[in-house]
Write a structure and sequence with these properties.
78% of the residues lie in helices and 0% in strands. By secondary structure, the chain is mainly alpha-helical. It has one domain. Helix 1 packs antiparallel against helix 2. The longest helix has 73 residues. The two termini are 54 Å apart.
């Protein structure tokens, strides 16, 4: 047996229908935006990998240049003494430290290359797919059903009651 519905306002049902339509549109746009952000993150990782590879080449060149400067400076001068090499040694130390930092950054990017797709798959893809299926399947069916019910209620409200003939007034007994 169907329980009766107590509908107080058809306008509230129309508002609810409109709100569901807005929700569906905004949710689908949000899913598209999230997909773009994921692509942007992947592109950023590619850019970072290229950047740090370029920096590694530059860093290796700096280390090589600093080693050559230090090696040239370590030869005795014309008087036979070895000049102070502390500036070249410090430059070499800094270049090697920078190269080590660059290699660490390359390793971090490599780890994220493997980690990011797994995280996206584990945390996002399944939920996004279920929400997309809901928004593209269940919500439109629900909206159509709600629209049909609103139409039925409006048709019901539009029905005018038929005039029921009222019995003619009967005179009271004893009165002419």
């Amino acid at each position: 047996m169907n329980p009766s519905a107590s509908v107080e306002s058809i306008a509230a049902l129309r508002d609810w229908h409109a709100a569901l339509c807005v929700f569906r549109t905004e949710a689908l746009e949000s899913l598209a935006s999230a997909a773009l952000e994921i692509q942007r993150a992947d592109s950023w990782l590619d850019d970072q990998a290229r950047h740090w590879q370029s920096e590694a080449r530059d860093g290796e060149e700096d280390v090589l240049r600093c080693r050559n400067e230090l090696a040239q400076r370590q030869f005795p001068d014309y008087s036979g003494r070895i000049p102070d090499c502390s500036v070249q040694e410090e430059a070499l130390w800094r270049a090697e430290a920078r190269l080590e930092y660059i290699k660490e950054q390359i390793e971090i990017v490599r780890r994220w290359y493997t980690r990011l797709p797994k995280l996206i798959n584990e945390e996002y893809d399944g939920a996004a797919r279920r929400l997309t299926n809901f928004l593209e399947g269940d919500v439109p069916r629900g909206l159509a059903l709600l629209q049909g019910r609103i139409g039925s209620l409006e048709a019901y409200v539009g029905i005018k009651p038929q005039a029921i003939p009222t019995p003619a007034a009967t005179p009271e007994k004893g009165k002419p």
